[in-house]
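Sequence design from tokenized structure. All designs in this work follow the same two-part layout: the structure record, then the generated sequence. An example of the structure record is given first.
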């Protein structure tokens, strides 16, 4: 056991001292925080560049129509940064030749038979954004919808009064009472957790295989094996790299949480004015019937939720998830999945001489992982189904699938059963891989086949 500890210590210290480990430990949280914050920040940005779109109409005779015959004039509403100029009796060819000098962002061509053609055309020297395209489509569709209602003598007020928008709010019954939840948020967290385990198992499992291949190629293993048993060497390498992975993941979680909290705190403070920086005329004394010195801050705090649509509802849904349980389960199934696949990767590394020979042996091992990733969409939609249950019990797919089901509050006995089977399979797989490892680690210059590996499993010294 002492020799195994030495191998674990060597594998751990060798890797955590590398520049790549330090760099990824710093860049990882920055990337995770950016993935959490930047998409929402980009969606909140508005294009403040004023853009003008020229609108021309053509009759069914393919001729530009005069102002009195324009059916779609003033139909498309303008926005803060989007203007529409309607050009009667203007040919499209003229606009095309003078487009650069006109200053228009685009030219919208609307045929008067659009009801049958179902198509308008937007010309520009640039690729118009999706927001502009959707705004135009929505406005024209709404206008034609209203025309059809009038055509059939149907009042628009009747239609509007008949329409009812319904939202379904999910609420869980717990021993503590009712608790609001979010199916969408659970799906996002489940997919992110399963996908991250998939990536990490591949990354750290490949490190085990690559380390064994390097030692075998450099003939270092011949020296090490004289004082350490093959099983001790394999176990120490697997456990040592597992500790490296756990260390890096823990650093990622802690630093990412700190970065996100720091950014949220900064943004929140920016929205609340500092009283010391307010002008004297902005602070009214209470003696004159005004407000107190702290009134600007209190008012800003009260207005903050209204400035961010749905912020309170989103925060409540986020807090509804049991993140402690999710994190513990994540570490538990990542470790079990890594140990199981690392044992198989170690067996592959011992049986080959170069990394180029790994492809034929890696495919059967990686198929269950890929299959688990593919089925995550089905699992997230039906976490309580029989197929989802069995995929989360089978040890070769359970690390990914069970992580996808965890945010949906599945029964505890299913989690325990899946974990027990996973770790028992790891022990069995380690014993089988050790038989291949002890034979293949000192074998050079021979192309190994599946038949040869099968013989090694039953080979006795």
């Amino acid at each position: 056991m002492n020799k195994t500890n030495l191998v674990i210590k060597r594998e751990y210290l060798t890797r955590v001292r590398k520049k790549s480990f330090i760099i990824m430990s710093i860049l990882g949280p920055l990337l995770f925080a950016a993935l959490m914050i930047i998409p929402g920040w980009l969606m909140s940005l508005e294009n403040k560049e004023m853009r003008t779109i020229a609108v021309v109409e053509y009759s069914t005779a393919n001729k530009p129509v005069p102002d009195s015959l324009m059916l779609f004039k003033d139909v498309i509403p303008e926005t803060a940064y989007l203007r529409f100029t309607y050009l009667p009796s203007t040919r499209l060819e003229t606009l095309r030749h003078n487009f650069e000098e006109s200053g228009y962002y685009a030219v919208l061509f609307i045929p008067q038979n659009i009801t049958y053609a179902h198509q308008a055309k937007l010309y520009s020297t640039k690729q118009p954004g999706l927001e502009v395209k959707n705004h135009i489509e929505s406005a024209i569709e709404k206008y034609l919808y209203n025309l059809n209602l009038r055509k059939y003598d149907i009042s628009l007020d009747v239609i509007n009064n008949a329409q009812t928008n319904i939202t379904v709010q999910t609420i869980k019954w717990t021993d503590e009472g009712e608790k609001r939840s979010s199916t969408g948020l659970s799906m996002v967290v489940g997919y992110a957790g399963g996908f991250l385990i998939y990536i990490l198992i591949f990354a750290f499992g490949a490190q085990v295989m690559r380390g064994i291949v390097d030692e075998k190629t450099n003939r270092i293993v011949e020296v090490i094996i004289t004082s350490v048993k093959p099983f001790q060497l394999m176990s120490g390498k697997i456990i040592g790299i597992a500790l490296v992975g756990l260390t890096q993941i823990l650093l990622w979680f802690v630093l990412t949480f700190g970065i996100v909290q720091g950014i949220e705190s900064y943004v929140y403070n920016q929205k609340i004015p500092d009283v010391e920086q307010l002008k004297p005329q902005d602070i009214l004394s209470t003696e004159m019937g005004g407000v107190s010195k702290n009134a600007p801050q209190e008012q800003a705090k009260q207005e903050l939720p209204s400035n961010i649509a749905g912020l309170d509802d989103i925060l409540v849904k986020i807090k509804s998830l049991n993140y402690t349980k999710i994190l513990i389960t994540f570490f538990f199934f990542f470790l079990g999945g890594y140990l199981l696949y690392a044992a198989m990767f170690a067996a592959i590394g011992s049986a080959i001489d170069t990394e180029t020979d790994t492809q034929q042996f890696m495919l059967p091992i990686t198929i269950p992982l890929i299959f688990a990733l593919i089925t995550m969409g089905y699992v997230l939609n039906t976490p309580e189904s029989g197929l989802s249950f069995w995929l989360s019990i089978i040890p070769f797919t359970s690390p990914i699938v069970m992580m996808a089901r965890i945010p949906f509050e599945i029964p505890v006995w299913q989690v325990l059963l899946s974990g027990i089977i996973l770790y028992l399979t790891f022990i069995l797989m380690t014993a089988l891989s050790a038989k291949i490892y002890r034979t293949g680690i000192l074998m050079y210059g021979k192309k190994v086949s599946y038949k040869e590996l099968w013989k090694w499993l039953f080979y006795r010294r």
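Strands lie at 51-58, 82-86, 106-111, 121-123, 171-174, 177-180. We note this feature because it recurs in several other targets discussed in the main text.
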